[in-house]
Amino acid sequence: MYQSKAYSAASKTSPLTATTIPRRDLTERDVQIEIQFCGVCHSDLHAVRDEWNEFMPTVYPIVPGHEIVGHVTNVGSAVTKYKRGDLVGVGCMVDSDLTCNACKADLEQFCPNGVLTYNAPDKHLGGVTYGGYAESIVVDEHFVLRVPANLNLAAAAPLLCAGITTYSPLRRWGVTKGKKAGIIGLGGLGHMGVKIAHALGAHVVVFTTSPDKKEDAMRLGADEVVVSRNTAEMEKHTDSFDFILDTVSAKHDINSYLKLLTHDGNLTLVGAPPEPFEVAAFSLITGRHILSGSVIGGIRETQEMLDFCAEHNLTADVEVIPIQKVNEAYDRMAKSDVKYRFSIDMASLEAG
Ligand code: NAP
Ligand code: ZN
Description:
Helix content is about 25%, strand content about 25%.
């Protein structure tokens, strides 16, 4: 065991502050990574403030962060995929049993014995896992991704969660040239969804509550932008979407979006507000609409997404911050004031 500098929150009302955390000594399968950047996901905020208490209560202290990129500093004796100096990433998962049906199907995110990067029981050290707002991390090589060298590192970090979370359902539901795809919410996930759907060749429509994001949405790859509070603008799109991706982090009316699907169209939820939605039967039965959900993606698909992003030169639009600004970043994220992902420069941990 060794100590690593990190930022943690002591309770749901405490700010994140400097601390040191234990990391395990390398097992033969482990990769040790010096973290250079870590993206700030809205899930970090939900977890730090214990907003998901009903589903996954937060254990304090919590060290969030699951959009991790950095360099390999050491590898265990049985590691074959990585060597010292490699550019790598870690997303939301750090372990799974690799033997269940989900794992065998490359869907580790559904493994009953999966371990999340933070706030999950840590079978090596006891307590819970600590995430990427830290100097370093030790992870089983299966859960380490290769980050293509042509991508800017600070801007590539968000691909490890926001990238895969949007890529996976866009691919699964066949978003491609000739399809009309909607993205609800232009935040971290949403702006990656726009870029990826555009790169897949779809006609992309952004739904936003923030009229001032209109120009950015078009620059990011949208073909049209709808201010969702404008009912007339919404109704123009009735019965027209093949697919809509809902990335909104707070409770909202999904019936007004289900109505916009064409017959057999799909609306997939990736946003994770803690409160339940109300769904009118008529929003689904009329048009045989499908309402579904999706959570990140498997390791193989995450690597595929990184390679796709490298090929299309896609990364997040990031505002790089020192870790000392993370609490301010959370307050801004809570107000939908992120353009469009915060990426923490971990070199700033030196300053305490
Ligand atoms: P984010 O950067 O804060 O973006 C969320 C966006 O939703 C905001 O920018 C805003 O966009 C819109 N929004 C916020 N409050 C709203 C409200 N009350 N009504 C309507 N729209 C609202 O968050 P994120 O990091 O993209 O994460 C989004 C959600 O996805 C979170 O709940 C997060 O926990 C979840 N998530 C899920 C997965 C998964 O695997 N399923 C993975 C990562 C994150 P506009 O300003 O454009 O309206
Ligand atoms: Zn995330």
